[in-house]
Give the backbone structure.
Amino acid sequence: MGLFFNFQTPKPKQFNYRPLYYDERKERLEKMKACAEAELAVEKEKTGSTGLQRGFLTGNRAKSKLRHATPEKSSALRFFIILLVLLGILYFTMPEIFMAFWKSK
């Protein structure tokens, strides 16, 4: 009976993976993070704060609103400049169209 009811499962093989390449970018990022954390810790000891305080980003918000408001004006100006350039090209390639337009009035 002992021969038929011996249910021992084999142990799984151990997986030992060693990467074949070195990720220099990842190492640099980790060093930069460590340096930044160390600087932040030193600054926190000096000032007693982390640097992020109430109203810290309000000035940046106002600057970003101004920066994002100007493309609307510049896009209209860009449109008229492109329109003038295209009309100039059309005039120099087919001046008879413009002459017929002016003579018809």
Q: What stands out?
A: The CA atoms of residues 63 and 75 lie 19 Å apart. Residues 24-48+69-103 form one domain.
